[in-house]
Design brief:
The chain has 15 helices and 8 strands. It is mostly helical.
């Protein structure tokens, strides 16, 4: 697939990238690099991950630019790659950095029901994004270094089902404010106004990654039930024209609504991983995931001057904080955010989804179509020539 050439080139550039912020966007790419390394055994992905992280983790395990006192769940997901880095290298600093992030979660403020606040500056708020940002790392820590007790993690998912799920739409809202005092929430329900595809994608990926870490049969049963319900609720909203999910999941007729790459790839990842982990009742879910992945490859990549670009990515969307009235969760707001190319959230999740596709192929599970549709757009340019041009531009 052409996607593989693009992702390898992106990994090469990412390894040399230095930023002035410790952030979850880069965390998506790091998680994606680890997934590609697991799927392929190719050390260039591991080395890119390690090279990037070593610019942030000093020999004492301190994380450059990380501030525990912010209680920001967005600071956590980059730490997920500390576990495979420590397991392979034995470098104590990786273990110490993981302990620092876990120490934040031990003291993270919570709602009365026991769910993590999304950030210190978002009091009493639970976001679907935060389930992905915090809970897979929490589960990985418990499995590798902790007691193994996952009850607190599973409880936060059942809390989300109780407060964020809409029984009529069969979808989860983006966020919930327990105190109901933030400007964007409904004063009766505490819920944000509409359904956003990427937030649903964060949820679907968090189900997949936490389920994988569970051993207890009762907890696995709870998580599998929630995961199946969320997937079955979302699939009817798949846009038939693009075979992707729209930025605003449930509003296909809304002017300006568009197929959004990152959220669609998140759903594809979850669908394929659920098949590999034996959660679905039949292989149609995995095939649907592959079809979404191929739809992204066929429609969201473009080439300019020999360089590939992945587009259709919502740059960012959120709610508040207090005083930022633009981020009000309205339809107009979600459709006003910039649509960009090659941004970490889209590319990182593309890595994850493609890695999951490779794992399905390796397992012998029937995946349906395997031919790159993108190539049809550039015939008679051969795949090797496209790859060569793309790599030369990225070097």
């Amino acid at each position: 697939m052409l996607m593989e050439y693009y992702l390898a080139a992106y990994a090469n550039v990412f390894a040399r990238t230095d930023r002035d912020i410790w952030n979850y966007e880069d965390g998506c790419v790091l998680i994606g690099l680890n997934a590609l390394w697991e799927a392929t055994g190719d050390d260039r992905y591991f080395n890119a991950m390690r090279t990037f992280m070593d610019r942030y983790i000093d020999d004492a395990g301190h994380i450059r630019l990380y501030r525990q006192e912010d209680y920001n769940l967005d600071f956590i997901p980059s730490g997920r790659v500390l576990f495979p880095l420590f397991a392979r290298t034995g470098r104590a600093a990786y273990r110490q950095a993981a302990e620092a992030l876990m120490e934040q979660l031990r003291h993270q403020p919570r709602t009365r029901a026991g769910s993590f606040w999304h950030k210190g500056i978002y009091p009493n708020q639970v976001w679907l994004d935060g389930l992905y940002m915090g809970l897979p790392f929490y589960a990985m820590y418990q499995r590798q270094f902790g007691s193994g007790d996952m009850a607190d993690i599973v409880k936060q998912f059942t809390n989300a089902r109780q407060t964020l799920y809409d029984e009529r739409a069969c979808l989860y809202y983006h966020a919930y404010c327990e105190s109901r005092d933030i400007f964007w929430c409904d004063k009766k329900t505490g819920l944000s106004p509409t359904f956003w595809t990427r937030s649903l994608g964060w949820l679907l990926m968090s189900f997949a990654d936490v389920y994988e870490a569970l051993d207890d049969p009762a907890q696995r049963q709870i998580m599998a039930g929630l995961w199946r319900e969320a997937v079955d609720g979302m699939l009817p909203y798949l846009d038939k024209k693009s075979n992707m999910f729209l930025q605003l999941t449930a509003l296909p007729e809304e002017p300006g609504n568009y197929p959004e790459t990152s959220g669609s790839l998140m759903a594809a990842y979850s669908l394929m991983k659920g098949e590999r982990l034996g959660v679905w009742s039949d292989a149609s879910y995995a095939r649907r995931g592959v079809e979404i992945l191929l739809a992204v490859e066929a429609t969201q990549f473009r080439m300019q001057d020999g360089q590939l670009h992945l587009g259709g990515i919502c740059k960012g969307a959120g709610l508040g904080p207090d005083g930022n009235f633009k981020r009000d969760g309205s339809v107009a707001y979600y459709l006003s955010e910039a649509i960009v190319e090659d941004e970490q959230k889209g590319v990182g999740v593309c890595m994850m989804a493609y890695a999951e596709y490779l794992k399905l192929l390796a397992s012998g599970i029937e995946t349906g179509p395997q031919v790159s549709l993108f190539m049809q757009k550039y015939d008679p340019i051969m795949p090797d020539e496209i790859a060569r041009l793309a790599m030369e531009k990225q070097q």
